[in-house]
Amino acid sequence: MTRLILAAAALLALTLAGPAAAECYADYKAKKDAPLQLHYGVARVSDANCSPKAAAGELAPRLAGDGWTLLNVLSTFGPEGLDERKASAGAYFLRY
Description:
- The chain has a three-stranded antiparallel sheet with strand order 2-1-3, with helices on both faces.
- By secondary structure, it is of the alpha+beta class.
- It contains three helices and three strands.
- A hairpin with a 4-residue loop joins strand 1 and strand 2.
- The chain has one domain (23-92).
């Protein structure tokens, strides 16, 4: 009986740990003024910030460090969405 309970607890722990270990990415648009520059980029964000609103809070300071202003986060997604966005993001693919 004790082994069964331990096995069930271990299975539950592994099940709950799965989603927490998932990778999260966000695609976004940013700008610089004088002269106006725009870019589209893809960045990894922490798993806890895997919503567009939360990702914006994480990305804005990163971008501001290089003089960029975050315009908006378009979406958040897992690693399965990286390949389709890589060419569009160009030099800003996983830069920030």
